Amino acid sequence: MNDPQRALTLQLLEWIDQGNHPYKEVLEVWKSSCPRLTVWEDACEAGLVDAMPGMAGTVFLTQKGKAFLMSVSSHSRI
Fold first, then answer.
1. pLDDT digits (tens, 9 = 90+) for 2-45
2. For residue 31, what are the contacts with CB-CB under 8 A and spacing of at least 6?
3. Phi and psi of 52, rounded to 5°?
4. What is residue 78's predicted lDDT score, i.e. its pLDDT?
5. Are 26 and 41 in contact (CB under 8 A)?
6. pLDDT of residue 66
7. Distance of CA 31 to the CA centre of its chain
8. What is the pTM assigned to this prediction?
9. How far apart are the C-alpha atoms of 59 and 51, rounded to whole Å?
10. Could you give the 3-state DSSP secondary structure of residue 47?
11. At what angle do helices 23-30 and 3-17 cross, to 10 degrees?
């Protein structure tokens, strides 16, 4: 993952971790039609995020997503 993509992925994970965001809201904010900027799609494919079924279902971090967020956060404190 390149640095801009990594930074945006971190921003996405932090945003999801801060509150309850319905799937529909996440798609409105993060889904991209740009083939070079697929933060939401890449996070899903990497298994960093998941959602409850349905458009109103809440998006949440998976264990892998939480671990990624923690590892990046701990490195930035050094």
1. 677 888 999 999 999 998 899 999 988 888 777 777 888 899 99
2. 40, 41
3. -70, 155
4. 45
5. no
6. 96
7. 11
8. 0.81
9. 4
10. coil
11. 150
Q: Name the residue with tokens 């264990």.
A: 63
- For residues 69 and 48, give the distance between their C-alpha atoms in angstroms, rounded to a whole number: 9
Q: Are 19 and 37 in contact (CB under 8 A)?
A: no
Side chain identity, residue 59:
V
Q: How wide is the angle at C-alpha 75 spanned by C-alphas 58 and 39, nearest 5°?
A: 40
Report the half-sphere exposure of 36 (CA within 13 A, side-chain side). 1
Cα angle 9, 41, 25 (rounded to 5 degrees) comes to: 85
CATH topology of domain 3-76: Arc Repressor Mutant, subunit A (1.10.10)
